[in-house]
Amino acid sequence: MIRRLLLAILAVAVIGGGVAAQTCTVQSYFVSPEVDGTIEAAIIHAIDGAKQSLDLALFSFTDDELGSAVVRAARRGVTVRAILGFGQDTVWGGEYGKLTSAGITVVIATSTGLFHHKFAVVDGNLVITGSYDWSDTADKENYENEVFIYCSVLTAAQTAAERYTNEFNRLWTAFRAETGSTSAGQAVSVGVQSVIIYTIDRVGECIQLLDVSNNDVDISGWRLSDLEGSYTFPDETVLKPDEPFSVCIDTYNPTHDTEGLYLNDDHDEVFLVTPDGKIADENVW
Fold first, then answer.
1. One fold for 9-179 and 192-284
2. Which residue blocks in the chain are alpha helix, DSSP H?
3. Domain 192-284 CATH class label
4. In this structure, CATH architecture of domain 9-179
5. Angle between the N-to-C axes of helices 64-75 and 38-48, in degrees from 0 to 180, rounded to the nearest 10
6. In the chain, where are the structural domains located?
7. Among 32-36, 150-154, 265-269, where is mean pLDDT lowest?
8. Tens of pLDDT along 91-121?
9. Catalytic site positions
């Protein structure tokens, strides 16, 4: 069960250049193998509340729920920029393809040093940072911490969010210059990453897909699989952009065979697989 551990809310005064102070609010969160979901839920809540901008600087990004939250932000008009660690464009289970298919500009860090940042800036006034990688492993298996620093009052002194944004902009400019290009908004009408597993109702046994491209996507012959059973979408199954598409157990497993595609409430996995065997998306819990 997700339990929120709010250990401290305190006011911090930051003095800059001998000018007036600013007041910020700091919230601290922790997870461990015994307590999971706390940080993930807090980050999703923050992203879902973003109105203008979202900057991500992440060593690793493999958490499907966080990836879906970022896509939702982009789809409602939030300007999203992401810098991901080296290799995140090819790592198995990564969110890179999901982001680029939603038109999000992603830069892969290329450097002799390890890109180990783990921070986000929301709307220019909220910083999210800590040891927590945006990954399933960090959420379920590790001892991790995260702090949310919200600075609502702007003064002559730089806010924490401004400092992080300045560093993000410096890295963004540097890595874009090194790579020579960014990866964003490719044509995805038939691309593997144009469709994502949007939500899963484990109790109601329903799986909802979402076309995150700007085009209709024909998923005839695509499969849903939990490595025990599978369901193949029939001919002329076409998804419309921004229109969630649900398929429930009465369709994908009408006999409710426990050896077939069946959603375990506590632990299971669902893969969305293209006709040529490529994994378009996955959700593991």
1. no
2. 38-48, 64-75, 96-101, 136-140, 160-179, 249-252
3. mainly beta
4. 2-Layer Sandwich (3.30)
5. 10
6. 9-179, 192-284
7. 150-154
8. 777 888 888 888 899 999 887 778 999 999 9
9. 116, 118, 123
